[in-house]
Design a protein that fits this description.
The complex is a heterodimer of chains A (729) and B (328).
Chain A (H helix, E strand, L loop, with lengths): L1 E6 L25 H5 L15 E7 L5 E7 L1 H4 L4 E5 L23 E2 L5 E7 L2 H10 L1 E6 L13 E2 L5 E3 L2 H7 L2 E9 L11 E6 L4 E5 L4 H12 L6 E4 L15 H13 L3 E4 L2 H7 L6 E9 L5 E12 L21 E10 L13 H19 L3 H6 L18 H12 L12 E2 L2 E13 L5 E7 L5 E4 L9 H13 L6 E4 L16 H24 L8 E2 L2 E2 L3 E2 H5 L4 E9 L2 H4 L3 E13 L5 E11 L6 H21 L30 E5 L23 H13 L5 E2 L3 H7 L3
Parallel strand pairs in A: 1-26, 2-14, 10-30, 12-13, 16-17, 21-22, 28-29
Antiparallel strand pairs in A: 2-6, 3-5, 3-7, 4-6, 8-17, 9-17, 10-15, 11-12, 11-14, 15-16, 18-19, 19-27, 20-21, 20-26, 23-24, 24-25, 27-28
Helix pairs in contact in A: 8-16, 11-12, 15-16
Chain B lengths: L4 E4 L3 H8 L4 E4 L5 H6 L7 E4 L8 E3 L5 E4 L4 H6 L1 H6 L1 H8 L4 H6 L2 H5 L51 H7 L3 E6 L4 E5 H4 L17 E8 L6 E7 L10 E10 L2 E10 L6 E2 L1 H7 L6 H12 L11 H20 L1
Parallel strand pairs in B: 1-3, 2-3
Antiparallel strand pairs in B: 4-5, 5-8, 6-7, 6-8, 9-10, 10-11, 11-12
Helix pairs in contact in B: 5-8, 10-11, 11-12
The chains are: A alpha+beta (729), B alpha+beta (328).
Organism (chain A): Qipengyuania citrea
EC number (chain A): 1.17.1.4
Protein name (chain A): Molybdopterin-dependent oxidoreductase
């Protein structure tokens, strides 16, 4: 029995607060943690499947052109080689998040260097890898493919454009103004687990173990790619070793494994090499961003301009949504926002953790720091003076808004000095020491989701949904939500995820998993409570459930009369999605030291204060914030994709050369969670959290670099060469 | 990875004989070779495992120096009491490199033979004169931020990426080499690596059938020993510039200055003229500048790596200032 909740109104009942079990919000360790650290949690490639053969993708060594011939005979005689699959249904890019249909196919057309063109299958992985490198391919290259965003006339993304008032006039009349251009380099998700899939075909049904974030979309993308009805496909992703956006859409190895398994009638495993993960999944686009800020004497913004240039392959719908939070973060009457995309032949650009704000906020908050300096206003105070009462473009109310609290509480906890600021005030040996801050903002998303919850007479419950846990804590928080609603210790709630046989949800991505699937579990549990209340003769709101007992003396087993009781919850965001602007807000504070001689910058300490609705689990939520701040450090100081200027290939394609922060780069981080209830975010009053921690943090570090040593940089990441180039004598 | 035969050498003689095979390569820790084999950059038909050939000891030498067996791991060397007390620059250089896990596997001999991290060398679908003579240099006009500014050629601008050898160069260590015919020879670390010239595939003076057996350190010298590594992240990153320095002060004057530089060239860079300039002089910013002038007089940037020239100058300033201060 399915219960449907379409949420048109804010839910201020805060039902989770009135329950008796007392587990919601508790800092419970991840329930699958032990299995993961002891190696018993199987990742996609780790299922022992009898007779499984190994596929390795062969990739293009030209940038753009046609494949005239793939000479299969060049490798079919090699040891162990079983087949070369060059099926026209092979996909050549990963699907964009929520695409719901097959991504680009036609593997004989090459659009970027490193694009998958065929699959070589052999008895062992090493044999397949060797053969894939030896596959003889005849190309007809098309010269002159544009490779750099400034090499082409960009396309305006018109639905992003905002023109209100007269920005140029506001700039000319402003008491203080800033007109600066920032750049950011591309980022990679760099998830630990490489993209991998094992496909099995029994002649009628296709089962694929894969490493994916959004199964409900992925099943459609895969089925569409291989022309199989969706009912014939089952996708399983029980454990995912990090996604960060790179596993939102079905990617090349999964489609190739499926096609090969069906053609060869044997199970086929395809694991991408680390280099392939870097070179043929998704990059975050590099950006160029012009920021114009006009302010009155008191620092109140009168004009706001944010124009960004990003890039992607021809034919891709995704354009890094740089301006996403710029639309509503600060009030200003005269506005110009514009997003342009350059069509170039680097690998596909797509979602990498916090698409948009991850790069837009560091630029905006860097410009705000320049404005604070010019206006002689404390940077925290400048932000406080510009918080709008409502969405400044659309006039919509905010669902909830904790920016001011985060700024104030963060500043106090950090020990922020609100006195006059000048660079180069503190030096320890070779190191200049300074501080910086920035606001955080990230749009809140929530999606339609279903989940089934079954109460069992033995006092346990089973939660089933195709939702994934990509390392975020989904297993744990869904057990907490069900436990709280049904009066059970979360240890007695089994959560079964990552299987398309279960009721479907939107998956993990855009920080929407917890509130979407959590709400579906909530709806199912509420329906179970109504049935139980009915059986014991009270109203649902008066039904006390705790520790497996129904208050009033009934045991759960008695009420269930020996029979399991199941409800499927179906949550759908209704008018709330249109009636409010919903976002998470926060503030970052950083102390950074910069070496005067070498230009090396190191973060001494960093604090983030965040408001993102209800905290479902203080431990997993804090971990998400820590991860986000760590990404902020990478975006500020080290992470940059480098592309060859002649053929556009990604050169730094492994974890030694693409510099995510290491432990030594990450000092003790402090997280303050400014708890709130957001009634319009979801019926569990929770908002997205995973991405917020990296939306602006890089600017706190960049601003601290300036405060430390006087080098004002407008280019992220702020590597030693760039710092030295701006370092005053 | 190309299929290969695996042989295990049980003695030094075994190792030299087996490695003499035309298609054979020695494997010790494998921390560099296995990566390159997976990428098909290295495709030996025969892999000779020398791990049990028995030269992993670290022993005192008769002249007061130290003999570090070629198979001693980086970790074993870095934690050795005599290395820590008498040759701290070596311990510091090793600990500045790679990660704990890699250092546990990497060996002295293997680390000396570590190959460049040039992106174009490591990608067999790109041109590289080092990997495929005559195919061109992808890095010149390519992504060359990590590349060399000293001793480059039109054929190759790759760097030697290691840290340990930079310290060994400053210490004036010697590489002990045994050959298949039983001959033994010694080569100063400062002469062990080659500049690319028009033979960029030749990275060191080892001949076919030769095996490194040990590195010997001379008797310890007085002075402060520093290793400074400038890098983008604070661990697990290759040097943009690194400096190994041994500096002794006497009566306000620099009595000894042995300096070697990493990240700048196809080999650990050592220039005796810098020692000659510094030794006997009183420390000053002008002196450090003059030292940097000598170091960098023939430096040439390739666009993206131009910054290494001022960075090397500034880092030299910092290192000399620190060494003089610590030595005083």
């Amino acid at each position: 029995m399915t219960v449907h909740l379409k949420q048109d109104e804010p839910d201020t009942s805060n039902r989770l607060d009135g329950m008796k079990q007392g587990v919601i919000g508790q800092p419970i360790s991840r329930v699958e943690g032990l299995a993961k650290v002891t190696g018993t949690a199987p990742y996609a490639a780790e299922y022992p499947i009898e007779g499984c053969v190994e596929g390795v993708l062969a990739t293009a060594t030209i940038t753009r052109g046609e494949i005239l011939k793939i000479d299969k005979d060049s490798v079919l005689g090699m040891p162990g080689v079983i087949a070369v699959i060059d099926d026209p249904r092979l996909t050549t890019r990963a699907a964009q998040g929520t695409a719901n249909e097959a991504p680009q196919q036609s593997p004989r057309t090459v659009c970027y260097w490193g694009q998958p063109i065929a699959l070589v299958v052999a008895e062992t992985f090493e044999q397949a890898r060797d053969a894939a490198k030896h596959l003889a391919v005849e190309y007809r290259p098309h010269d002159g493919a544009p490779l750099s965003p400034d090499a082409v006339e960009p396309e305006e993304q018109e639905d992003e454009t905002v023109r209100q008032g007269d920005l140029v006039h506001a700039m000319s009349e402003a008491a203080h103004s800033v007109d600066v251009t920032f750049t950011t380099k591309g980022h990679a998700s760099a998830a630990m687990e490489p993209h991998a899939a094992i496909a099995q075909w029994d002649g009628d049904q296709l089962t694929v173990h894969a490493s994916l974030q959004m199964l409900n979309y992925n099943i459609s993308e895969l089925a569409d790619a291989i022309d199989l009805p969706e009912e014939k496909v089952r996708l399983v992703s029980r454990f995912v070793g990090g996604g960060f956006g790179s596993k939102l859409g079905v990617s090349e190895e999964t489609v190739a494994a499926a096609i090969a398994a069906m053609q060869l009638e044997r199970p086929v495993r395809v694991v991408m090499s680390r280099q392939q993960v870097f070179q043929c999944i998704m990059r975050r686009s590099e950006t160029t961003q012009r920021l114009r800020l006009a302010a009155d004497q008191k620092g109140r913004l009168t004009g706001f301009g944010h124009e960004a240039l990003v890039s992607n392959l021809p034919g891709e719908t995704f354009a890094e949504p740089v301006l996403q939070s710029s639309h509503f973060l600060y009030a200003a009457q005269n506005r110009k926002l514009m997003l342009e995309v350059a069509r170039i032949h680097r690998m596909t650009a797509g979602s990498v953790r916090a698409p948009g704000e991850a790069v837009g906020m560091p630029a905006l908050e860097g410009a705000m720091d320049v404005l604070a300096e010019r206006a002689g206003i404390d940077p925290v105070e400048l932000r406080l003076r510009n918080i709008p009462k409502e969405n400044p473009e659309e006039g919509l109310p905010f669902s909830s808004h904790k920016l001011a609290e985060c700024l104030r509480e963060g500043a106090e906890a950090f020990g922020w000095d609100s006195g006059p600021r000048k660079p180069r005030q503190k030096r320890k040996g070779e190191w200049w020491v300074g501080t910086g801050m920035a606001s955080a903002a990230r749009v809140h998303n929530v999606g339609e989701a279903k989940a089934r919850v079954t109460l069992k007479p033995d006092g346990t419950a089973l939660v089933e949904t195709d939702m994934t846990d990509i390392g975020t804590g989904t297993y744990t928080i869904l057990a907490q939500i069900a436990g709280e609603m049904l009066g059970l210790d979360p240890e007695n709630v089994l959560v079964d995820l990552g299987d398309t046989r279960h009721p479907r949800g939107p998956g993990s991505g855009g920080s929407w998993g917890a509130s979407s699937s959590g709400s579906a579990v909530y709806v199912a549990c509420k329906a179970l409570r109504e049935e139980l209340a009915d059986r014991v003769g009270v109203t649902e709101t008066k039904l006390d459930l705790a520790d497996g007992k129904v208050a009033g003396g009934h045991s759960l087993a008695q009420v269930l009369a020996g029979e399991p009781l199941a409800r499927e919850g179906h949550y759908e965001p209704g008018a709330i999605a249109d009636d409010f602007t919903a976002a998470g807000f926060g503030a970052f504070f950083a102390q950074v030291r910069v070496n005067h001689f070498t230009g090396e910058s190191r973060v001494d300490r960093m604090l983030g204060a965040f408001g993102f609705g209800r905290v479902l689990n203080r431990k997993t939520a804090r971990s998400q914030c820590l991860g986000g701040i760590t990404w902020s450090i990478g975006a500020a100081l080290t992470e940059a994709l480098e592309f060859d200027p002649r053929d556009g290939h990604l050169v730094n394609c492994d974890l030694a050369e693409y510099h995510v922060p290491v432990h030594r780069d990450v000092p003790d981080l402090e997280v303050i969670m400014v708890e709130e209830r957001d009634p319009a975010a979801s019926p569990i009053q929770a908002k997205g959290i995973g991405e917020l921690g990296m939306c602006g943090g890089a600017a706190a570090i960049g601003n601290a670099i300036y405060n430390a040593c006087g080098a004002r940089l407008f280019d992220y990441p702020m590597t030693p060469d760039r710092v030295l180039a701006c370092m005053p004598d | 990875m190309r299929p290969f035969q695996y042989e295990r050498a049980r003695t030094l003689g075994d190792a030299a004989r087996l490695v003499a095979g035309a298609d054979a390569m020695a494997i010790a820790g494998g921390s560099n070779l296995l990566d390159l084999m997976k990428l098909q950059v290295e495709t030996p038909g025969e892999l000779v495992d020398i791990n049990r050939a028995g030269f992993a000891e670290i022993e005192d030498a008769d002249d007061g120096g130290l003999r570090i067996g070629a198979l001693a791991t980086n970790t074993a060397t870095a934690v050795h009491p005599r290395v820590r007390s008498d040759y701290p620059v070596l311990a510091r250089a090793i600990l500045a490199g790679a990660t704990q896990q890699l250092r546990n596997k990497a060996t002295t001999g293997g680390n000396l033979c570590q190959r460049t991290r040039c992106f174009y060398f490591m990608n067999i679908d790109q041109p590289c004169n080092k990997r495929e003579p005559g195919s061109g240099c992808g890095a010149i006009d390519g992504v060359a931020k990590l590349h060399a500014v000293l001793g480059t050629s039109d054929e190759c601008i790759a760097t030697y990426p290691g840290d340990m050898a930079v310290a060994l160069s400053a210490l004036d260590a010697t590489v002990q080499i045994a050959s298949v015919d039983g001959a033994e020879r010694s080569v100063p670390v400062r002469d062990f690596h080659c500049l690319p010239g028009d033979t960029p595939w030749r990275e060191n003076v080892l001949e076919d059938g030769e095996v490194i057996t040990a590195v010997t350190l001379p008797a310890p010298v007085a002075g402060v020993q520093l290793y400074r590594k400038v890098r983008e992240r604070s661990s697990y990153a290759f040097a943009l510039v690194s400096i190994a320095a041994i500096v002794e002060m006497r009566d306000g004057v620099i009595a000894r200055a042995d300096l070697s530089f990493g990240g700048l060239a196809h080999k650990p860079w050592h220039d005796l003229r810098i020692s000659d300039l510094l030794e006997g002089a009183a420390p000053s910013a002008q002196l450090y500048d003059a030292a940097a002038d000598l170091l960098l007089e023939d430096a040439r940037g390739y666009g993206e790596n131009d910054f290494k020239i001022p960075l090397a100058r500034r880092t030299l300033h910092a290192v000399l200032a620190q060494a003089v201060e610590d030595a005083a």
